[in-house]
Amino acid sequence: MFLSGAGLPAWIWDDVRRELGEGQQTCVASRPQGGRARLRDYAQAAIDSAPPGGYAIVAHSAGGVIGAEVARLAPERVSAFLAISAVIPRPGGSFVSAMPVPNRWVLSAVMRLAGTRPPDSVIRRGLAHGVDEEVADRIIADFTPESPALYRDRTAPRSWSGWRGYLRTADDHELPMALQQRCAQQLGAAWQNDVSTGHLPMLEDHRAVAAAITRFLDARP
């Protein structure tokens, strides 16, 4: 089950899902409707959109916070958790609290003043760095503002302890490597690897992402 980063549409995973092949059943988690959804609503929408039985979570960016709640609410269904340049707060923390100072203060102020949709120029320069112009235009056109609670709500104190991995993006203009490494530690990732892309590796190098997912799943004890 793929969990997209904040504001990002399901189609960003299309090439990765095709590369994984028909032998690997996949889905992209749904998001709740409306601008007042809480973090738990995001997690429950993801759980409800998954097929019956167990599944591995592949969480990107802010999807890491949702994935942490999914794993807490339905631990018996989550077989593995791979974070891709994902924000993983400490148990009891939030997306905002996972950011270093002063970034967390700036982020909180910006959300209060301007909401959760960055200007087009910021999306193009940061989130879409590394993808071609046509794809960047599509990302900007399809970007959907999220509920502020996705960023501010705290995860539960108890964390999930199954098979975990972290795929870092080495040319990321959104999450610096130092922050990604800290998130990998927070996750307790026993499997770690890097790709030489920006923040959207599923669009910049979908084959490398699909190969990393396969290696991660094959390495399960």
In terms of quaternary structure, what is this? Answer: single chain
Helical amount: 40-55%
H/E series, N to C?
A: EHHEHEHHHHHEHEHH
Q: What is the first-to-last residue Cα distance?
A: 20 Å
Structural class: alpha/beta
Our count of helices gives 11
CATH topological fold name: Rossmann fold
Strand content: 5-15%
CATH class: Alpha Beta
Low-confidence stretches: none
Average pLDDT taken over every residue: 92
Could you characterize what this model shows?
It contains 11 helices and 5 strands, in the order βααβαβαααααβαβαα. It is an alpha/beta fold. It has a single domain (2-218), classed as 3-Layer(aba) Sandwich (Rossmann fold). A 5-stranded parallel sheet has the order 1-2-3-4-5, sandwiched between helices. It starts with a strand and ends with a helix. InterPro entries: AB_hydrolase_1, AB_hydrolase_fold, Sec-Metab_Biosynth_Hydrolase. Keywords: Hydrolase. Residues 2-212 form the AB hydrolase-1 domain. It holds the Pfam family Abhydrolase_6.
Keywords:
single chain; 221 residues; alpha/beta; Rossmann fold; 43% helix; 12% strand; globular
